[in-house]
């Protein structure tokens, strides 16, 4: 499960050098590359499916799309919650600094609930 804002100034959605407190000049891996790596490692073969997350708070300046890669070995789906307009924040959480510094916080879903639901639906396989 990857949850990432497209306007994250601390870890760019696309590959890049941006980093809020760790501006070391190093290139940070982009979200597409990260997700593709998990899709490959998990052996996902089905076409990606997308669905919009309900825009529960149109005033937060964000919208979210769920991209699901399934047909994976041991049902190890790969899911991206792409928060368009979202910053380096915790969806449904506390806006710990100004939007001009860290970006906007999505109010359309709770990252806590999404993470919990994902791991309930995808338990770790019992070692053989």
What's the layout of helices and strands?
Layout lengths: L1 E4 L25 H11 L7 E5 L9 E7 L8 E7 L14 H4 L8 H11 L7
Parallel strand pairs: 1-4
Antiparallel strand pairs: 2-3, 3-4
Summarize the structure.
The protein has 128 residues and is an alpha+beta fold. It is built from 3 helices and 4 strands.
Can you offer a commentary on this structure?
By secondary structure, the protein is α+β, with helices and mostly antiparallel strands. It contains 3 helices and 4 strands. It has a 4-stranded mixed sheet, covered by helices on one side. A hairpin with an 8-residue loop joins β3 and β4 (78-84). The radius of gyration is 15 Å and the shape is globular.
What attributes does this structure have?
20% helix; 18% strand; 128 residues; four-stranded mixed β-sheet; 3 helices; alpha+beta
Helix content: 10-25%
Mean pLDDT: 92
Outline the biggest β-sheet. 4 strands, mixed
The fraction of residues in strands falls at 15-25%
Terminal CA distance? 24 Å
What's the total helix number?
A: 3
* Shape category: globular
> What are the low-pLDDT stretches, counting only 5+ consecutive residues below 50?
none
> Radius of gyration in whole Å, from Cα?
15 Å
Oligomer designation: single chain
- Spatial order of the strands in the main sheet? 1-4-3-2
Broad structural category:
alpha+beta
Written as H for each helix and E for each strand, in order along the chain, the element string is EHEEEHH
